[in-house]
Sequence to fold (193 residues):
Amino acid sequence: MADYKDQFIKNILEIEIENWNNAKIENRDERSLDGFITVRGTMFKTWSIGALESYYEDLCNYKRDNINIMTLKYARVGNLIPRINDNPLIDEVVKIETKWQEEVRNKYPNVIRDNSEVFLQYLIAELESYSEETLRLCFYDVMEAKENNVNLAEERYKMLFGELGYSSLKEADEAAKERIVQTDNCAAGFQST
Fold:
């Protein structure tokens, strides 16, 4: 089953990378493609097979209709186009994901910074781009995790920082705290000269 899921994630990322490379996004840092792939890959690992299959179908439909999903999402993030999906499930997912994000930020404040406004913009744009079926399946995944007391934001961050070489979020948070202390000490020394 893992191989099947991994193959779907690979197929999804191939289409998303193609969209990323062809997207009309202002001020895009081309070096951020590797980060994009890592973040998206870890996100998809928390999805059910059903949600992955449905999202892959969404991407194929966008491709068939000659719509670049990345251009569309970033246009929504920048508020350049009106809302493209007003399904009430979006608000439900946003409430839960926002709470999870806040919980992770409170547990690991040095590595998970408060970027709640940006997080919210990206999350809403992301969810609005899904078909009704993908949105329903993602909502189901989120509700199942919530019922099982699983914080999917924390799970994604664990995988992400694992990809970056950390054994845990705690280790990543401690390393970030150390960098902050070193920066503060360096700045204090600079100011005293």
